[in-house]
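Hi V.,

You were right to ask for the full record rather than a summary. Here it is.
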Amino acid sequence: MNKHPRSTLPVPPQTGGRRVALPSPTVSLISLGCPKNLVDSEKLMGSMATSGFIPMHPDGPADVLIVNTCSFIGEAQRESEEAIQQAIRSKKKGRLKGLVVAGCHAQRFGKVLAERFPEVDAVVGVSAAADIAEAAHAALNRSREQEAWIRLHPPIEVDVRDDARFRLTPKHWAYLRISEGCDHACTFCAIPSFRGKHRSKPFDQVLAEARELIASGASELLVIGEDTTAYGIDLDRRRRLGELLSAVSELAGLRWVRLMYAYPTGFDEATLAAIAERPTIAKYVDIPFQHTASRVLKRMNRKETREDIFRIVARLRERVPGIAIRSTFIAGFPGETPEDHETLLADLAALALDRVGCFAYSPEGSPVANRLDGAVDETERKQRRNAAMETQQKISWAKNRARIGSVCEVVIDAPHPELRFRKERSGYKARGEPSGLPATPDSPSNAVDGPLYAKSRGVWIARSQGEAPEIDGHIELRSRQPLAPGKVVRITITHAGPYDLAGVPADEAGQTRKKGK
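Predicted structure:
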Protein backbone atom coordinates (compact mmCIF):
# COMPACT_ATOMS: atom_id res chain seq x y z
CA MET A 1 0.00 0.00 0.00
CA ASN A 2 1.20 3.46 -0.81
CA LYS A 3 0.01 5.96 1.80
CA HIS A 4 -1.48 9.25 0.71
CA PRO A 5 -2.87 12.23 2.59
CA ARG A 6 -6.55 12.96 2.33
CA SER A 7 -7.53 14.65 -0.90
CA THR A 8 -9.73 17.69 -0.54
CA LEU A 9 -11.79 20.02 -2.66
CA PRO A 10 -11.61 23.81 -2.66
CA VAL A 11 -14.28 25.87 -0.93
CA PRO A 12 -16.17 28.00 -3.49
CA PRO A 13 -15.10 31.57 -2.68
CA GLN A 14 -18.65 32.84 -2.21
CA THR A 15 -19.32 30.58 0.79
CA GLY A 16 -16.53 31.67 3.11
CA GLY A 17 -16.76 28.22 4.70
CA ARG A 18 -20.36 28.87 5.89
CA ARG A 19 -23.62 27.35 4.75
CA VAL A 20 -25.30 29.75 2.32
CA ALA A 21 -28.22 29.41 -0.02
CA LEU A 22 -27.13 27.54 -3.14
CA PRO A 23 -29.35 26.52 -6.07
CA SER A 24 -28.25 22.87 -5.99
CA PRO A 25 -27.32 20.37 -3.28
CA THR A 26 -23.71 20.45 -2.17
CA VAL A 27 -21.30 17.55 -1.78
CA SER A 28 -17.89 17.07 -0.19
CA LEU A 29 -15.56 14.09 -0.24
CA ILE A 30 -12.78 12.53 1.82
CA SER A 31 -10.49 10.21 -0.17
CA LEU A 32 -8.41 7.64 1.69
CA GLY A 33 -5.88 5.08 0.52
CA CYS A 34 -3.88 4.59 -2.64
CA PRO A 35 -3.74 6.39 -6.01
CA LYS A 36 -6.24 3.94 -7.50
CA ASN A 37 -8.71 5.00 -4.83
CA LEU A 38 -7.99 8.65 -5.58
CA VAL A 39 -8.91 8.09 -9.23
CA ASP A 40 -12.14 6.48 -8.00
CA SER A 41 -12.76 9.62 -5.92
CA GLU A 42 -12.25 11.80 -8.99
CA LYS A 43 -14.76 9.67 -10.88
CA LEU A 44 -17.24 9.89 -7.99
CA MET A 45 -16.98 13.68 -7.86
CA GLY A 46 -17.19 13.93 -11.64
CA SER A 47 -20.40 11.95 -11.55
CA MET A 48 -21.77 14.09 -8.72
CA ALA A 49 -20.90 17.30 -10.55
CA THR A 50 -22.60 16.17 -13.76
CA SER A 51 -25.64 15.21 -11.68
CA GLY A 52 -26.01 18.77 -10.41
CA PHE A 53 -24.21 18.66 -7.06
CA ILE A 54 -21.87 21.51 -6.11
CA PRO A 55 -18.43 20.39 -4.77
CA MET A 56 -17.44 21.76 -1.35
CA HIS A 57 -14.50 21.44 1.04
CA PRO A 58 -14.82 18.40 3.38
CA ASP A 59 -14.04 20.49 6.48
CA GLY A 60 -17.00 22.75 5.89
CA PRO A 61 -20.78 22.21 5.81
CA ALA A 62 -22.31 20.29 2.92
CA ASP A 63 -25.54 18.52 2.15
CA VAL A 64 -23.78 15.21 1.49
CA LEU A 65 -20.37 13.88 2.52
CA ILE A 66 -18.81 10.90 0.70
CA VAL A 67 -16.11 8.96 2.54
CA ASN A 68 -14.21 6.92 -0.05
CA THR A 69 -12.61 4.20 2.05
CA CYS A 70 -9.57 1.92 1.86
CA SER A 71 -9.44 -1.70 3.12
CA PHE A 72 -5.96 -2.91 2.15
CA ILE A 73 -4.51 -3.50 5.63
CA GLY A 74 -5.69 -3.09 9.21
CA GLU A 75 -4.31 0.43 9.55
CA ALA A 76 -6.23 1.52 6.45
CA GLN A 77 -9.42 -0.11 7.71
CA ARG A 78 -9.10 1.66 11.07
CA GLU A 79 -8.45 4.99 9.35
CA SER A 80 -11.55 4.47 7.20
CA GLU A 81 -13.74 3.76 10.20
CA GLU A 82 -12.31 6.70 12.13
CA ALA A 83 -13.20 8.94 9.18
CA ILE A 84 -16.75 7.53 9.23
CA GLN A 85 -17.04 8.21 12.96
CA GLN A 86 -15.77 11.75 12.50
CA ALA A 87 -18.33 12.29 9.73
CA ILE A 88 -21.08 11.00 12.03
CA ARG A 89 -20.07 13.59 14.64
CA SER A 90 -20.29 16.32 12.00
CA LYS A 91 -23.70 15.03 10.97
CA LYS A 92 -24.95 15.19 14.57
CA LYS A 93 -23.77 18.81 14.74
CA GLY A 94 -25.83 19.63 11.66
CA ARG A 95 -22.88 20.27 9.38
CA LEU A 96 -24.14 17.75 6.82
CA LYS A 97 -27.43 16.05 6.01
CA GLY A 98 -26.43 12.81 4.33
CA LEU A 99 -23.48 10.47 4.78
CA VAL A 100 -22.38 8.06 2.03
CA VAL A 101 -19.65 5.45 2.59
CA ALA A 102 -18.00 4.29 -0.65
CA GLY A 103 -14.91 2.48 -1.88
CA CYS A 104 -13.00 -0.68 -1.02
CA HIS A 105 -13.97 -0.99 2.64
CA ALA A 106 -17.61 -0.49 1.63
CA GLN A 107 -17.30 -3.15 -1.07
CA ARG A 108 -15.72 -5.59 1.36
CA PHE A 109 -17.79 -4.97 4.51
CA GLY A 110 -20.76 -2.92 3.29
CA LYS A 111 -23.58 -4.57 5.23
CA VAL A 112 -21.45 -4.85 8.36
CA LEU A 113 -20.62 -1.13 8.21
CA ALA A 114 -24.31 -0.24 7.82
CA GLU A 115 -25.10 -2.25 10.95
CA ARG A 116 -22.17 -0.87 12.98
CA PHE A 117 -22.85 2.73 11.98
CA PRO A 118 -26.63 3.24 11.66
CA GLU A 119 -26.04 6.96 11.04
CA VAL A 120 -24.58 6.06 7.61
CA ASP A 121 -27.30 6.74 5.04
CA ALA A 122 -25.91 4.91 2.01
CA VAL A 123 -23.17 2.38 1.21
CA VAL A 124 -21.71 2.13 -2.31
CA GLY A 125 -19.04 -0.42 -3.23
CA VAL A 126 -16.41 0.19 -5.90
CA SER A 127 -18.50 -1.99 -8.20
CA ALA A 128 -21.45 0.42 -7.97
CA ALA A 129 -19.62 3.74 -8.32
CA ALA A 130 -21.86 4.71 -11.24
CA ASP A 131 -24.78 4.83 -8.79
CA ILE A 132 -23.17 7.44 -6.51
CA ALA A 133 -25.60 10.24 -7.38
CA GLU A 134 -28.56 7.95 -6.69
CA ALA A 135 -26.95 7.04 -3.36
CA ALA A 136 -26.51 10.74 -2.49
CA HIS A 137 -30.17 11.49 -3.21
CA ALA A 138 -31.19 8.46 -1.15
CA ALA A 139 -29.03 9.73 1.71
CA LEU A 140 -30.67 13.15 1.60
CA ASN A 141 -34.18 11.67 1.57
CA ARG A 142 -33.65 8.91 4.14
CA SER A 143 -35.88 9.02 7.21
CA ARG A 144 -34.71 7.78 10.61
CA GLU A 145 -36.90 4.70 10.31
CA GLN A 146 -35.45 3.60 6.97
CA GLU A 147 -32.52 1.23 6.63
CA ALA A 148 -29.39 2.41 4.85
CA TRP A 149 -29.39 2.39 1.04
CA ILE A 150 -26.85 -0.26 -0.03
CA ARG A 151 -25.58 -0.99 -3.54
CA LEU A 152 -22.94 -3.71 -4.02
CA HIS A 153 -22.30 -5.48 -7.33
CA PRO A 154 -19.88 -8.33 -8.09
CA PRO A 155 -16.27 -7.06 -8.48
CA ILE A 156 -16.19 -7.93 -12.18
CA GLU A 157 -18.64 -5.09 -12.75
CA VAL A 158 -16.16 -2.45 -11.62
CA ASP A 159 -16.09 0.15 -14.40
CA VAL A 160 -12.72 0.53 -16.13
CA ARG A 161 -13.46 3.94 -17.65
CA ASP A 162 -11.83 6.94 -16.00
CA ASP A 163 -12.88 9.85 -18.18
CA ALA A 164 -14.91 12.90 -17.04
CA ARG A 165 -13.04 13.05 -13.72
CA PHE A 166 -13.20 15.90 -11.22
CA ARG A 167 -9.44 16.32 -10.70
CA LEU A 168 -8.26 16.19 -7.06
CA THR A 169 -4.51 16.24 -7.74
CA PRO A 170 -2.64 19.49 -8.47
CA LYS A 171 -3.25 20.74 -11.98
CA HIS A 172 0.20 19.83 -13.33
CA TRP A 173 0.12 16.08 -12.58
CA ALA A 174 -2.43 13.29 -12.64
CA TYR A 175 -2.84 9.53 -12.37
CA LEU A 176 -3.45 7.54 -15.55
CA ARG A 177 -5.04 4.19 -14.64
CA ILE A 178 -4.57 1.60 -17.38
CA SER A 179 -6.27 -1.42 -15.80
CA GLU A 180 -8.52 -2.62 -13.01
CA GLY A 181 -8.24 -5.70 -10.78
CA CYS A 182 -5.50 -8.30 -10.42
CA ASP A 183 -4.91 -11.92 -11.46
CA HIS A 184 -2.28 -12.64 -8.81
CA ALA A 185 -3.20 -14.58 -5.67
CA CYS A 186 -0.71 -13.13 -3.18
CA THR A 187 -1.62 -14.57 0.20
CA PHE A 188 -1.21 -11.21 1.98
CA CYS A 189 -3.67 -9.38 -0.28
CA ALA A 190 -7.46 -9.45 -0.60
CA ILE A 191 -7.71 -6.91 -3.43
CA PRO A 192 -8.83 -9.40 -6.14
CA SER A 193 -11.77 -10.38 -3.90
CA PHE A 194 -13.26 -6.87 -4.08
CA ARG A 195 -11.60 -5.41 -7.18
CA GLY A 196 -11.95 -8.48 -9.39
CA LYS A 197 -9.67 -10.04 -11.97
CA HIS A 198 -7.29 -8.02 -14.15
CA ARG A 199 -9.02 -6.05 -16.91
CA SER A 200 -7.01 -3.83 -19.25
CA LYS A 201 -8.52 -0.70 -20.72
CA PRO A 202 -8.60 -0.62 -24.52
CA PHE A 203 -5.43 0.95 -25.92
CA ASP A 204 -7.24 3.86 -27.62
CA GLN A 205 -9.25 4.55 -24.48
CA VAL A 206 -6.08 4.97 -22.42
CA LEU A 207 -4.68 7.40 -24.98
CA ALA A 208 -7.95 9.35 -25.03
CA GLU A 209 -7.93 9.64 -21.24
CA ALA A 210 -4.26 10.70 -21.31
CA ARG A 211 -5.09 13.45 -23.82
CA GLU A 212 -7.98 14.57 -21.62
CA LEU A 213 -5.71 14.82 -18.59
CA ILE A 214 -3.05 16.74 -20.54
CA ALA A 215 -5.73 19.10 -21.87
CA SER A 216 -6.78 19.77 -18.26
CA GLY A 217 -3.23 20.94 -17.48
CA ALA A 218 -1.40 17.76 -16.43
CA SER A 219 2.12 17.67 -17.85
CA GLU A 220 3.11 14.62 -15.75
CA LEU A 221 1.15 11.37 -15.82
CA LEU A 222 1.65 8.53 -13.34
CA VAL A 223 0.68 5.17 -14.84
CA ILE A 224 -1.12 3.03 -12.26
CA GLY A 225 -3.03 -0.24 -11.92
CA GLU A 226 -2.95 -3.20 -9.57
CA ASP A 227 -0.37 -4.76 -11.95
CA THR A 228 0.66 -2.42 -14.74
CA THR A 229 3.01 -4.94 -16.37
CA ALA A 230 0.03 -7.21 -17.13
CA TYR A 231 -1.45 -4.58 -19.43
CA GLY A 232 -2.78 -6.08 -22.66
CA ILE A 233 -2.65 -9.77 -21.73
CA ASP A 234 -6.43 -10.07 -21.47
CA LEU A 235 -7.01 -8.04 -24.64
CA ASP A 236 -4.34 -9.28 -27.04
CA ARG A 237 -2.75 -12.24 -25.23
CA ARG A 238 0.52 -10.33 -24.98
CA ARG A 239 2.01 -7.65 -22.77
CA ARG A 240 1.65 -4.21 -24.31
CA LEU A 241 2.91 -1.93 -21.52
CA GLY A 242 6.06 -0.91 -23.40
CA GLU A 243 4.01 -0.08 -26.48
CA LEU A 244 1.51 1.88 -24.41
CA LEU A 245 4.19 3.86 -22.57
CA SER A 246 5.81 4.75 -25.90
CA ALA A 247 2.50 5.93 -27.34
CA VAL A 248 1.69 8.05 -24.28
CA SER A 249 5.20 9.52 -24.26
CA GLU A 250 4.60 10.97 -27.74
CA LEU A 251 1.54 13.00 -26.74
CA ALA A 252 1.93 16.75 -27.12
CA GLY A 253 2.14 18.70 -23.88
CA LEU A 254 3.60 15.85 -21.81
CA ARG A 255 6.78 16.37 -19.79
CA TRP A 256 7.01 13.05 -17.93
CA VAL A 257 5.14 9.76 -17.81
CA ARG A 258 6.05 7.71 -14.72
CA LEU A 259 5.56 3.95 -14.23
CA MET A 260 4.09 2.69 -10.96
CA TYR A 261 2.95 -0.73 -9.63
CA ALA A 262 5.07 -2.89 -11.92
CA TYR A 263 5.03 -6.60 -11.06
CA PRO A 264 8.63 -7.95 -11.00
CA THR A 265 8.28 -10.98 -13.26
CA GLY A 266 6.19 -9.07 -15.80
CA PHE A 267 8.92 -6.57 -16.64
CA ASP A 268 9.61 -7.35 -20.31
CA GLU A 269 12.19 -6.09 -22.78
CA ALA A 270 9.77 -3.74 -24.56
CA THR A 271 9.04 -1.91 -21.31
CA LEU A 272 12.73 -1.65 -20.48
CA ALA A 273 13.50 -0.33 -23.95
CA ALA A 274 10.75 2.29 -23.72
CA ILE A 275 12.06 3.62 -20.39
CA ALA A 276 15.64 3.62 -21.66
CA GLU A 277 14.99 5.26 -25.03
CA ARG A 278 12.07 7.66 -24.59
CA PRO A 279 13.14 11.00 -23.05
CA THR A 280 9.68 11.80 -21.69
CA ILE A 281 9.42 8.50 -19.80
CA ALA A 282 10.83 9.21 -16.33
CA LYS A 283 13.90 7.19 -15.41
CA TYR A 284 12.01 5.80 -12.46
CA VAL A 285 10.09 2.63 -11.68
CA ASP A 286 7.94 1.51 -8.77
CA ILE A 287 8.30 -2.29 -8.51
CA PRO A 288 7.04 -3.87 -5.25
CA PHE A 289 9.17 -6.87 -4.25
CA GLN A 290 7.49 -7.55 -0.83
CA HIS A 291 10.47 -9.60 0.49
CA THR A 292 13.79 -11.08 -0.62
CA ALA A 293 13.94 -14.41 1.23
CA SER A 294 12.82 -17.04 -1.31
CA ARG A 295 10.96 -19.17 1.24
CA VAL A 296 8.93 -16.14 2.40
CA LEU A 297 8.20 -15.17 -1.21
CA LYS A 298 6.91 -18.69 -1.81
CA ARG A 299 4.61 -18.46 1.22
CA MET A 300 3.38 -15.14 -0.16
CA ASN A 301 2.59 -16.97 -3.43
CA ARG A 302 4.87 -14.64 -5.35
CA LYS A 303 6.34 -15.79 -8.65
CA GLU A 304 9.86 -14.39 -8.15
CA THR A 305 12.77 -15.66 -6.07
CA ARG A 306 15.57 -13.82 -4.31
CA GLU A 307 17.84 -14.47 -7.31
CA ASP A 308 15.18 -13.06 -9.66
CA ILE A 309 15.02 -9.83 -7.66
CA PHE A 310 18.76 -9.26 -7.86
CA ARG A 311 18.70 -10.02 -11.62
CA ILE A 312 15.82 -7.59 -12.19
CA VAL A 313 17.53 -4.75 -10.31
CA ALA A 314 20.84 -5.36 -12.13
CA ARG A 315 19.03 -5.44 -15.48
CA LEU A 316 17.21 -2.18 -14.78
CA ARG A 317 20.42 -0.40 -13.82
CA GLU A 318 22.31 -1.79 -16.79
CA ARG A 319 19.68 -0.77 -19.34
CA VAL A 320 18.73 2.55 -17.72
CA PRO A 321 21.78 4.08 -15.99
CA GLY A 322 20.76 6.34 -13.13
CA ILE A 323 17.24 4.93 -12.87
CA ALA A 324 15.52 5.49 -9.51
CA ILE A 325 14.01 2.24 -8.23
CA ARG A 326 11.25 2.28 -5.63
CA SER A 327 9.95 -0.84 -3.88
CA THR A 328 7.84 -1.95 -0.91
CA PHE A 329 8.36 -4.81 1.53
CA ILE A 330 6.43 -6.62 4.25
CA ALA A 331 8.05 -7.47 7.59
CA GLY A 332 6.80 -10.16 9.94
CA PHE A 333 4.85 -12.23 7.43
CA PRO A 334 3.62 -15.55 8.91
CA GLY A 335 6.52 -18.00 8.93
CA GLU A 336 9.21 -15.33 8.56
CA THR A 337 12.06 -16.55 10.76
CA PRO A 338 14.74 -14.35 12.34
CA GLU A 339 17.07 -15.68 9.62
CA ASP A 340 14.61 -14.58 6.89
CA HIS A 341 14.47 -11.14 8.47
CA GLU A 342 18.28 -10.90 8.53
CA THR A 343 18.27 -11.91 4.85
CA LEU A 344 15.93 -9.00 4.11
CA LEU A 345 18.14 -6.53 5.98
CA ALA A 346 21.30 -7.75 4.26
CA ASP A 347 19.62 -7.66 0.86
CA LEU A 348 18.33 -4.13 1.39
CA ALA A 349 21.92 -3.08 2.01
CA ALA A 350 23.17 -5.00 -1.04
CA LEU A 351 20.43 -3.83 -3.42
CA ALA A 352 20.70 -0.19 -2.27
CA LEU A 353 17.35 0.76 -3.76
CA ASP A 354 16.58 4.45 -4.06
CA ARG A 355 13.15 4.48 -2.42
CA VAL A 356 11.76 1.87 -0.01
CA GLY A 357 8.60 1.53 2.02
CA CYS A 358 8.17 -1.29 4.53
CA PHE A 359 4.96 -2.35 6.26
CA ALA A 360 4.49 -4.61 9.23
CA TYR A 361 2.33 -7.56 8.17
CA SER A 362 -1.35 -6.86 8.75
CA PRO A 363 -3.56 -9.83 9.70
CA GLU A 364 -6.57 -7.87 8.47
CA GLY A 365 -5.20 -7.81 4.94
CA SER A 366 -6.17 -11.31 3.84
CA PRO A 367 -7.69 -14.36 5.53
CA VAL A 368 -5.48 -16.63 3.38
CA ALA A 369 -2.18 -15.66 5.04
CA ASN A 370 -3.80 -15.86 8.46
CA ARG A 371 -4.27 -19.61 7.95
CA LEU A 372 -0.52 -20.08 7.57
CA ASP A 373 1.48 -21.31 10.54
CA GLY A 374 4.31 -19.40 12.17
CA ALA A 375 2.48 -16.18 13.12
CA VAL A 376 4.84 -13.42 14.25
CA ASP A 377 3.96 -11.41 17.34
CA GLU A 378 2.66 -7.89 16.63
CA THR A 379 5.44 -6.22 18.62
CA GLU A 380 8.04 -8.27 16.76
CA ARG A 381 6.45 -7.39 13.40
CA LYS A 382 6.75 -3.69 14.17
CA GLN A 383 10.34 -4.06 15.39
CA ARG A 384 11.30 -5.86 12.20
CA ARG A 385 9.60 -3.18 10.14
CA ASN A 386 11.53 -0.47 12.00
CA ALA A 387 14.81 -2.33 11.52
CA ALA A 388 14.19 -2.50 7.77
CA MET A 389 13.42 1.21 7.57
CA GLU A 390 16.48 2.10 9.65
CA THR A 391 18.62 0.07 7.24
CA GLN A 392 17.10 1.85 4.26
CA GLN A 393 17.36 5.26 5.93
CA LYS A 394 21.16 5.02 5.99
CA ILE A 395 21.17 4.00 2.31
CA SER A 396 18.85 6.83 1.35
CA TRP A 397 20.87 9.41 3.25
CA ALA A 398 24.11 8.28 1.62
CA LYS A 399 22.51 8.46 -1.83
CA ASN A 400 21.16 11.93 -1.10
CA ARG A 401 24.54 13.19 0.15
CA ALA A 402 26.08 11.99 -3.11
CA ARG A 403 23.73 14.35 -4.96
CA ILE A 404 25.06 17.50 -3.26
CA GLY A 405 26.56 19.76 -5.90
CA SER A 406 24.76 18.07 -8.80
CA VAL A 407 22.51 19.96 -11.19
CA CYS A 408 19.10 18.68 -12.27
CA GLU A 409 15.72 19.79 -13.55
CA VAL A 410 12.83 19.85 -11.11
CA VAL A 411 9.14 20.62 -11.29
CA ILE A 412 7.59 22.91 -8.68
CA ASP A 413 4.75 21.25 -6.78
CA ALA A 414 3.66 23.87 -4.23
CA PRO A 415 4.83 26.59 -1.84
CA HIS A 416 6.39 25.04 1.25
CA PRO A 417 3.63 25.11 3.91
CA GLU A 418 6.03 25.75 6.80
CA LEU A 419 9.05 27.59 5.44
CA ARG A 420 7.64 29.86 2.77
CA PHE A 421 7.75 33.01 4.89
CA ARG A 422 10.95 32.49 6.85
CA LYS A 423 13.37 35.36 6.35
CA GLU A 424 16.67 34.36 7.95
CA ARG A 425 18.28 31.05 8.81
CA SER A 426 21.99 30.31 9.16
CA GLY A 427 21.82 26.58 8.52
CA TYR A 428 19.64 23.85 7.17
CA LYS A 429 18.56 20.57 8.70
CA ALA A 430 16.36 18.33 6.59
CA ARG A 431 13.35 16.79 8.30
CA GLY A 432 13.78 13.31 9.66
CA GLU A 433 17.57 13.40 10.15
CA PRO A 434 18.40 10.00 11.65
CA SER A 435 19.84 9.92 15.13
CA GLY A 436 22.93 7.89 15.89
CA LEU A 437 24.54 8.37 12.48
CA PRO A 438 27.93 10.07 12.30
CA ALA A 439 28.08 13.63 11.04
CA THR A 440 29.92 14.18 7.77
CA PRO A 441 31.29 17.37 6.16
CA ASP A 442 28.22 17.53 3.91
CA SER A 443 25.58 16.29 6.36
CA PRO A 444 22.65 18.65 6.97
CA SER A 445 23.94 19.84 10.35
CA ASN A 446 27.32 20.90 8.89
CA ALA A 447 26.35 22.04 5.39
CA VAL A 448 26.05 25.82 5.67
CA ASP A 449 26.52 27.97 2.60
CA GLY A 450 25.31 31.29 3.89
CA PRO A 451 21.88 32.69 4.79
CA LEU A 452 19.71 30.01 3.20
CA TYR A 453 16.46 31.84 3.87
CA ALA A 454 17.44 35.37 3.02
CA LYS A 455 14.90 38.17 2.98
CA SER A 456 12.45 37.87 0.04
CA ARG A 457 13.57 34.31 -0.62
CA GLY A 458 10.63 31.91 -1.05
CA VAL A 459 10.70 28.20 -0.32
CA TRP A 460 9.02 25.69 -2.60
CA ILE A 461 8.45 21.95 -2.70
CA ALA A 462 9.91 20.48 -5.89
CA ARG A 463 10.71 17.08 -7.43
CA SER A 464 13.10 15.67 -9.99
CA GLN A 465 12.50 12.63 -12.18
CA GLY A 466 13.63 10.51 -9.24
CA GLU A 467 10.76 11.45 -6.93
CA ALA A 468 7.08 10.55 -7.38
CA PRO A 469 4.56 13.02 -5.91
CA GLU A 470 3.09 12.32 -2.45
CA ILE A 471 5.06 9.06 -2.11
CA ASP A 472 8.77 9.88 -2.13
CA GLY A 473 10.78 12.65 -0.52
CA HIS A 474 10.96 16.09 -2.06
CA ILE A 475 13.42 18.90 -2.74
CA GLU A 476 13.03 22.14 -0.79
CA LEU A 477 13.88 24.85 -3.29
CA ARG A 478 14.85 28.33 -2.12
CA SER A 479 14.51 31.00 -4.76
CA ARG A 480 14.50 34.79 -5.00
CA GLN A 481 12.29 34.54 -8.08
CA PRO A 482 8.53 34.01 -7.90
CA LEU A 483 7.67 30.45 -8.90
CA ALA A 484 4.45 28.58 -9.60
CA PRO A 485 3.31 24.94 -9.46
CA GLY A 486 4.17 23.13 -12.68
CA LYS A 487 7.12 25.34 -13.54
CA VAL A 488 10.36 23.54 -14.45
CA VAL A 489 13.54 24.94 -12.90
CA ARG A 490 17.17 23.91 -13.29
CA ILE A 491 18.65 23.71 -9.79
CA THR A 492 21.79 22.85 -7.85
CA ILE A 493 21.43 20.46 -4.90
CA THR A 494 22.99 22.08 -1.83
CA HIS A 495 21.91 20.01 1.17
CA ALA A 496 20.77 16.47 1.94
CA GLY A 497 18.75 14.69 4.59
CA PRO A 498 17.76 11.02 4.73
CA TYR A 499 14.63 11.58 2.69
CA ASP A 500 14.52 15.18 1.48
CA LEU A 501 16.99 17.41 -0.31
CA ALA A 502 17.41 21.16 -0.61
CA GLY A 503 18.63 23.30 -3.46
CA VAL A 504 18.62 26.64 -5.20
CA PRO A 505 18.12 27.61 -8.85
CA ALA A 506 21.37 26.93 -10.69
CA ASP A 507 21.71 30.59 -11.66
CA GLU A 508 21.44 31.61 -7.97
CA ALA A 509 23.84 29.00 -6.55
CA GLY A 510 26.95 31.12 -7.08
CA GLN A 511 25.26 34.18 -5.59
CA THR A 512 24.35 32.25 -2.45
CA ARG A 513 27.89 30.97 -1.92
CA LYS A 514 29.32 34.45 -2.50
CA LYS A 515 26.98 35.98 0.10
CA GLY A 516 27.93 33.33 2.63
CA LYS A 517 31.64 34.14 2.51
